[in-house]
Amino acid sequence: MHRFFWIDPDANWDRRIRFFSFTWRKNGGMTTDIRDKAYISHHDVIGLNFIKPDGPYVFRRHFRQGLRSHVLELLLPGDIVIEKSGTVIDGTRWYPKAAPHRIFRIFRTRLKTLNHALEEVRRVKVVERYLLPEYLAQSIEIIVDYIGPCGRDLMLCGLQEYVQGEILDPWSPMPPDGLLPTLYDTLQIQSATPAMPIAPWILNARQKGARFVHRIKRMIAQTRHVPDLAGIGNLIMAASGAIKLVDINNIRKIPFDGTIDLDDRGYPVCDKSIEALSILEYKLLGRPIDRGEEIYRTFLEPRRMEQVRTREMAYHRNSK
Ligand SMILES: Nc1ncnc2c1ncn2[C@@H]1O[C@H](COP(=O)(O)OP(=O)(O)OP(=O)(O)O)[C@@H](O)[C@H]1O
Ligand SMILES: [Mg+2]
DSSP string covering 270-285, please? Predict the structure, then answer.
């Protein structure tokens, strides 16, 4: 017997993993697997067998995208009307951008077995345990029974908290005024709420940065897993100064045996994530890192970094 559910973005956040099984609706006329499409639209999403076609939300492609997932905004139709037609506040017409209610992700990677799918979800849970909602864009991970052009297949989706803010890019050059004062300026311009004075904001952001770095280090030491901190856009700083990890799909087990781990795309993601962590620590905390610390001593060792650079260059050559 089949049970029918719909993905409900307002669902109880306590039940983070859900399984969905549907048989009653085929994906009408779809000839390409949704995971292989370069872009998808609202129409593609509501054509999916596990999405309610007449639900209350409009799906819109988010302006930032990665390679591993489709990232879509869930918007309320009323907000889109206001975005297009404007609204009058104190005699002036404003055109506020519709704010996503949630982010809906479709993971492009094929899941070979249910165990493979569960392993992906388990890794997200590990990160969730260490970063807590304060430092992670919380996500309900959903394993669905996708009916595509080649029949049924497991697919991993996520309904994730939307994080508004500025990308915290470890690789960008250090701004002359320092990272936090520059981020403060950018974020306060974007923010709808009145600005907090710069000095307490920086102090608060620095404390949050220190806690974030500490939690990642604890996770590495205790679980030997690291999330992808190297990808641009994976970390976002909110106007409050909070740092949130939004990319939770590339969590790797770190080999501590001297080998350089490469992800499914051939990128040395563990080494580059630890390097990114060291740069973030330096930029956020405004002081040099302790190179004697075990993870930095191991992963920032000059000969090892040279080997990582070679792998990274090969990755970039092959991605062209
Ligand atoms: N919940 C979210 N809130 C705000 N922005 C998000 C959210 N999720 C993703 N983004 C943005 O969308 C872009 C793509 O996200 P992400 O890096 O997670 O993509 P991906 O395809 O899963 O992974 P990869 O980058 O490894 O290819 C990033 O720039 C990220 O900042
Ligand atoms: Mg990413």
Answer: HHHHHHHHHHHHHHHH
